[in-house]
Design brief:
There is one protein chain. With 529 residues, this protein is mostly beta strands. Strand 35 and strand 36 (435-436) form a beta hairpin. The strands form 7 sheets. Strands 6-7-4-9-11-2-12 form a 7-stranded mixed beta sheet, with no helix packed on it. Strands 16, 18, 20, 21, 23, 24 and 26 form a 7-stranded mixed beta sheet that branches. Strands 28, 30, 32, 33, 35, 36 and 38 form a 7-stranded mixed beta sheet that branches. Mean pLDDT is 82; it is low at 1-8 and 150-193. Helix content is 12%, strand content 49%. It has 4 helices and 38 strands. It has 4 domains: 7-174, Immunoglobulin-like, CATH 2.60.40; 200-323, Immunoglobulin-like; 327-448, Immunoglobulin-like (Sandwich); 454-528, no CATH class.
Length: 529
Amino acid sequence: MLNTGLVLATPLSVNIGYYTAYVNSNITIPIEIANASAVTGGSLKISFNPTIVNVQEVMPADFAVPIANINNEEGFVYIACAGFKAVGKDNASLAKVRVNALSCGLSSLNIQSESFNDENGNFLHLTISNGSINVLSSTSPTSTPTHSPVPDSEPNATGSRSGSAGFYNDHGYDSTTIKESESTNEVAHVPTPLSGKSPVVNIGSYTTYVTSNLTVPVGITNARSVAGGSAKIIFNPSIVFAQEVLPADFGIPIANINNESGFVYIACASSEAVVKDNTSLAKVRFNVLSKGITPLNIQNPILNDENGAIVIPDISNGKIAVGIVPLLSIGGYEVNIDSEITIPIIVKNASNIAGGSLKILFNSSIVNVKNISSGDFGTPETNIKEEYVYIAVVTANAVGKEEAILANIKFKGLLKGNTSLNIENANLNDESGNLISPMIDNGTLEVNKRWPCFIATAAYGTPLHEDIDVLRDFRDEYLMTNSAGRAFVEAYYTTSPPIADALRENEQLRTLVREGLVKPLVHISKIFT
């Protein structure tokens, strides 16, 4: 059942009054509201006889600048306006209508499709008092219009004064009538279908992260005949707050944002129907405060067509699920000259992440990139340059774990020194393709002087032979990964320097050690590496 938020306070009284004007003169007619102190704004339609008068403009009064649709062919003006706060006085004017008198005659000024709300978006019950304008032939160029707020015997277009109370309930407007005299005519206010299927005001479901901003459209489906409307959206102000309301398909909206109570009230209108099935009333820009889920519940929606006919639409509520901002991290590592190291790019708070892209800068005189391999997100697309590497990877589904590896980068140490590994232009995405800007924790890579292979270098006469690279890889990737291997390497570096010195002075001994010892060790090392 629709929660209407009906306020049962003293009924408002919306009235126009009775006027006399002269042909070719202008008159400004206020739309008066009595018992108005709680009113923030409202909308209504005023019908008139377009052969006797026409409307030139609608001007602001005690509320915000009105949105108006003037139709002088069919003889009506539709007006909607709102403010940020209640008007705070008993007698106020919604707007002022400037009318031009065309020809002699009596034109009724009938109020229809009226809807008024307080600053919480609750609808207020009201009575209406229609008016009229009597246009006379001008007898003098200085003739001025007159106004009689309480007529003695002047009839309206039906021969009597009438007023009704439009009570908003779960089914739209009730036809309850307040009779002002025995001759009062009853006016029923029943929602009029716009056309075809019933329109639906809807908000989708979104996933975002703490400290981010999210723009949420207030959508309307089956909207082809819709020319405007209003709605109240409820949210949890401890999780998100509304920053602003942006225009969509219906012109600049009038909005009342209340981040203490957790709601935003929106009203907007255009001069013509939007003429498309799916559209947006407005867009609400939220700032995300904390982790959690907030519903986005729509209350009190009313739509109208370009003739001011109203309808109570169906509702499809939404929500925002807020997580912790993901973190891209590299960390600190060490490698020796001529050695290689594989460094993972870590994503923390990664459960909703389905991929991403980034650029990593490094000092190419100290290290270079050998290759890039996949982590938890499939095979990456890469572009390896001299001083940076670009990586992009995406999967169909979120990775589903809090910590994941975006990709692995294999670096080789070239020169003793320290290089930063700086992440730039980083974006992550969820499985719906929404982009997420992660926090960044850059890394470092320190390159140490290599441990020379003393005996093998002396046996070959150079440190650059490919067999020596095999032995270095065996040392770094196998021996240095266990305690026994590290003990062997330490013993080797303690005892091998004098042996290497002896080899360099004896060519026959060098050949014997190279062919009989080093090459068999290279063959064995290749098996392990």
